[in-house]
Design a protein that fits this description.
The complex is a heterotrimer of chains A (200), B (331) and C (394). Chain A has 200 residues and is of the alpha/beta class. Chain A folds into 2 domains: 161 residues, 2-Layer Sandwich (Beta Polymerase, domain 2); 32 residues, no CATH class. Helices cover 28% and strands 22% of the residues of chain A. Chain A has a 5-stranded mixed β-sheet with strand order 1-2-5-4-3, with helices on one face. A two-stranded parallel sheet of chain A has the order 6-7. In chain A, strand 1 and strand 2 form a beta hairpin. The N terminus and C terminus of chain A are likely disordered. The mean pLDDT of chain B is 82. Chain B is mostly helical and 331 residues long. Chain B is globular, with a radius of gyration of 20 Å. In chain B, helix 1 runs parallel beside helix 11. Chain B has one domain. In chain C, helix 3 runs antiparallel to helix 4. With 394 residues, chain C is mainly alpha-helical. In chain C, a hairpin with a 2-residue loop joins strand 2 and strand 3. Classes of the chains: A alpha/beta (200), B mainly alpha (331), C mainly alpha (394). Chains B and C meet through helix 9 and helix 12 of B and strand 1, helix 5, helix 6, helix 8 and helix 15 of C.
């Protein structure tokens, strides 16, 4: 979002991004989506490690930006519920980038919601080691082949996986967020604002 | 009989003064370091204690330390832990005994020894043993590493320290401190002019002996928390604290005596009472130099320190001795 | 076989090995140079480490979970506490991510002000490094020179945002309108404070002078060079595969700066260099940061010279609801790449907000880079990576 981009440069940039997305998708054998300037390539979970091996090798996306997950579910203990039912799953995301023009691709795969498990990529991108430990403790995803899948942030005795949507935020259970009041009192909005508390 | 009594009384008074001087000197230098470092760093430093310029800051600090609880770690080797600070302090006090303040041995010096330098260098190592004891007995890994570093440092820097003084001894032809000063007063110029290599090596080695920056690895706050003093608190910590500054003084006194002509100054009769003042002025310059370096330089690494000692200082000081000896014979 | 000489020899070798035992040295979580609460479990043989295991999480505040129960404006207040030495810079990528999903663009003046304040955050963050790094190596004096200058920059930040560390100044669709003077001049004063531009220009001159001063004080120092040159060398490919970013990666020789390749702020309109190191050692990491202060001062000077005039806020609804979608916006923060992967379902708050913080990845290199290092070099290397534990644990 430059201050005053000409229409041409914007469309050129978009075309370049599409081309990059197609190239990555072709190489890893996935399906490319471009939304709001972000390239996401969906691959099958069985092809996860293979895809990231390709990105780190032939595609030259040597920089590991991050690896994390999203808990897609219809029953949430905190936050908004999806308006339309979503397919229950964990979406595992790994953002990789090159070091020249800054093109970044998020490789994505879906994991089973009941027993999420996937091959570790810690030997492909060594930095994934900590990210996978984080995802394992926060979402309960099992990374097969990880050298040391212990807890990263949480104490060893901690039970549960905090970033799962069914994990309640206890302080919210005890005392609702005052933000709710603010939202209700806001005037001059055509349709009445959602009284839905973003908190629990 | 009356002569005997006078002698013993005088000795007792001198020893009492030497003992009292250590904490006072420690406080003065400690205060100087606070103020000087502050001004080097665009700060004002101590300001309120004592009304003006914070002159009573160190007295207040001392009172605070004495009030604090004397904590001894459960796993510590208690007798060793307790006696380590005393030993550090003892080394400092014993060193001041041989410092010549005045040509008259009556009130200028506690005791003039034939082997003055030998005694000084030997006794200056005692405090390092105290440091090693502190490091060992604290039952703390940081203290342990700090104590071992101190021991390594002592071994590495004792040699150049001794070797650097040999040149002076050769030139003066005596090991007595009083004799060395007299030799310099007699010839009219200090040995630093001819023994400048020895002087530089002596000062570097002194910094290492004192474990002050850039050689403060035994303490190294950012690495070893506080090194061998980590577990000390209260007045035992105060002992280390004062001993550091008093040690600076005593080592500077020896350096000034050996290399800068002691109480002698060109054109001034050494028999007057100006002599001690001249000596203290010279010491002040050396102490300032140490403080200046302390607040300018980062810390070396242990292996770099050893390299400096064994590969540079010791060969150079040996070379210095050879050259001095040859010239002494030739000229 | 039992009685052979070789057998005895091998027996002897085994017993000799058993005599030396590695010591486990526990550094932190309370330690003078861990920049917060980091714990290292190091196995050392003498002073040389054989194995280092960082333990983090003492500062974990769960911002990703907290974000799921907050509205978008509320999130801005917590995310500038991630990397507290450059609070303002944390806000920008999040706000840009929300704007992208909403299809809103901040007016040019707001974007330029964001840019100026981001660069100020960079200067203040790097000055903290300039202050703390020599201190970790034992030199206390540069601390005061650097912090004095940082205070100047923080004063400027405060004059605009009202906060030194946690500005909370960004709004979705622009920046918070500032009332420069009293209540009577509200309408006229909805802009940055008068005098800000002149003071900034003045402060930048002083910052540059201090850079010169610090360079003279530190860079010419033999002991400093001996402690940093060829210590903790990090090759680019290793750094990249661990996700090390920002000045740490540029010191290794990668000229990769998100300001030049990404468009989260209008950096394309500015003329600045990206300093790149050669060896990737501690010295290069120090030098790159010093140069970056100079470049940031250069950017700020250009920006205040050509600050465009426009409103500070784009038209956005009173109640911010971000349409469904997802995007990842990353920015070049002082510590490295900071990014937010924002997943919205169209509600008042995000469905999921993944915070990619720079220090987390920069710290994950520690087991690799500290292997076989000496204990004194631990501190030199850790300090040169310039991490903040709030940025690691989030």
């Amino acid at each position: 979002m430059t201050a005053s981009p000409s229409e041409n440069s914007v469309s050129e940039a978009a075309a370049a991004l599409d081309e990059f997305a197609d190239r990555v998708a072709g190489a890893v054998g996935g399906r490319a989506e471009v939304s709001h300037g972000t390239v996401k390539v969906r691959v099958a979970s069985s092809a996860w490690k293979e895809a990231l091996t390709v990105t780190s090798g032939d595609l030259g996306l040597v920089f590991l930006s991050w690896l994390s997950a999203i808990d897609w579910t219809n029953e949430v203990a905190v936050g908004d519920e999806p308006d339309e039912p979503v397919e229950e799953r964990y979406e595992l995301l790994c953002a990789v980038s090159n070091l020249s023009d800054g093109n970044l691709a998020i490789i994505s795969t879906d994991l089973d919601h009941d027993s999420p498990s996937i091959a570790s990529v810690a030997d492909v991108y060594p930095g994934a080691n900590w990210h996978e430990r984080e995802a394992a403790e926060m979402f309960g995803i099992d990374f097969v082949g990880h050298p040391d899948l212990t807890k990263l942030y949480l104490p060893d005795s901690f039970e549960g996986h905090p970033l799962r949507k069914d994990f309640p935020l206890l302080s919210r259970e005890v005392k609702p967020w005052p933000g709710k009041v603010d939202v209700e009192d806001m005037p001059e909005n055509g349709s009445s604002p959602s009284t839905e508390n973003p908190g629990a | 009989m009356s002569l005997e009594l006078t002698f013993w009384w005088l000795l007792a008074i001198k020893l009492a003064v030497a003992a009292a001087v250590v904490p006072v000197i420690g406080m003065v230098i400690g205060y100087a370091e606070m103020k000087l470092s502050a001004h080097m760093q665009s700060r004002v430093g101590p300001y309120f204690a004592g009304g003006r310029f914070g002159w009573a800051q160190l007295i207040a600090d001392g009172v605070k330390f004495i009030q604090k609880e004397d904590i001894i770690p459960e796993k510590a080797d208690r007798p060793v832990f307790k006696w380590a600070p005393a030993l550090v302090m003892l080394g400092t006090m014993a060193l001041l005994v041989i410092v010549p303040l005045h040509p008259s041995s009556r009130y200028g010096i506690v005791r003039d020894l034939e082997v003055g330098i030998f005694y000084a260098l030997a006794i200056s190592s005692v405090s390092t043993i105290g440091v090693l004891m502190a490091g060992w007995s604290s039952a703390n890994k940081y203290s342990m590493i700090g104590g071992l570093r101190a021991a390594g440092q002592l071994i590495a820097y004792e040699l150049p320290l001794v070797l650097a003084t040999v040149g002076v001894v050769i030139q003066a032809g005596t090991m007595s401190m009083q004799g060395i000063v007299s030799a310099q007063v007699a010839q009219g110029w200090p040995f630093a002019l001819t023994q400048f290599i020895g002087f530089a090596i002596f000062m570097i080695a002194t910094l290492a002996e004192l474990t002050r920056l850039p050689f403060d690895m035994p303490i190294a706050e950012s690495e070893l928390v506080m090194g061998y003093v980590t577990e000390y608190s209260g007045f035992r910590f105060l002992f280390f604290f004062l001993a550091e500054f008093a040690n600076m003084f005593s080592m500077s006194v020896i350096a000034a005596t050996l290399f800068l002509g002691g109480y002698g100054l060109w054109g001034i009769n050494p028999e007057t009472l100006l002599s001690p003042i001249i000596l203290f002025a010279k010491v002040g310059v050396l102490v300032f130099l140490m403080i200046w370096l302390r607040w300018t330089l980062p810390r070396l690494r242990e292996d770099q320190l050893q390299t400096l000692a064994w590969k540079w200082l010791i060969p150079i000081s040996i070379l210095n001795i050879i050259v001095t000896a040859v010239l002494k014979v030739v000229i | 076989m039992e009685g052979t000489f070789a057998h005895h020899l091998s027996e002897a070798a085994v017993s000799v090995e058993l005599e030396t035992e590695g010591m486990t040295l526990n550094i932190g979580p309370q330690h003078p140079s861990t920049h917060g609460v980091l714990r290292l479990i190091a196995t050392v043989d003498g002073e040389r480490a054989t194995n280092v295991r960082p333990v983090i999480g003492y500062m974990h505040r769960g911002y990703e979970k907290l974000s799921e129960v907050r509205t978008y404006p509320q999130i801005i207040t917590i995310i500038n506490r991630i990397d507290w030495v450059s609070g303002f810079a944390n806000e920008v990528p999040f706000v840009v991510a929300a704007e992208r999903l909403m299809g809103v663009e901040a007016p040019p003046r707001a974007q330029w002000i964001r840019l100026v304040l981001t660069e100020m955050a960079r200067i203040s963050s790097h000055l903290v490094f300039m202050a703390s790094y020599p201190l970790e190596l034992g030199a206390a004096t540069p601390l005061f020179f650097a912090l004095r200058e940082r205070e100047r920059v923080l004063d400027l930040l405060e004059s605009v945002t009202g906060g030194r560390f946690h500005p909370n100044f960004n709004r979705i669709g622009g920046v918070k309108p500032v009332y420069a003077a009293g209540p009577t001049t509200k309408k006229a004063g909805m802009d940055i404070p008068s005098g800000f531009l002149a003071e900034t220009r003045d402060a930048m001159t002083k910052v540059l002078a201090t850079c010169e001063e610090i360079e003279n004080l530190v860079a010419g120092n033999e002991v400093f060079l001996a402690r940093t040159k060829n210590v903790g060398v990090l090759p680019v490919d290793v750094g990249a595969s661990y996700g090390v970013s920002g000045p740490n990666l540029r010191a290794s020789g990668a000229g990769f700066d998100l300001r030049t390749v990404s468009d989260y702020l209008p950096y394309a309109e500015f003329d600045f260099d990206v300093p790149v190191g050669r060896n990737g050692d501690c010295w290069d990491r120090w030098w790159v940061r010093l140069e970056e202060i100079r470049q940031s001062a250069r950017i700020i000077t250009q920006a205040i010279d050509g600050l465009p005039s426009s409103p500070l806020q784009a038209k956005v609804p009173r109640i911010i609801k971000v349409p469904a979608g997802e995007t990842y916006v990353r920015a070049e923060n002082p510590k490295g790449e900071m990014g937010y992967h924002l997943v919205s379902l169209g509600g008042l708050g995000p469905y999921r907000l993944k915070i990619r913080s720079a220090s987390f990845s920069n710290l994950s290199i520690l087991p690799w880079i500290l292997e076989e290092a000496l204990v004194p070099d631990f501190i030199a290397i850790m300090g040169s990576l310039d991490f903040v534990l709030g940025d690691v644990d989030r």
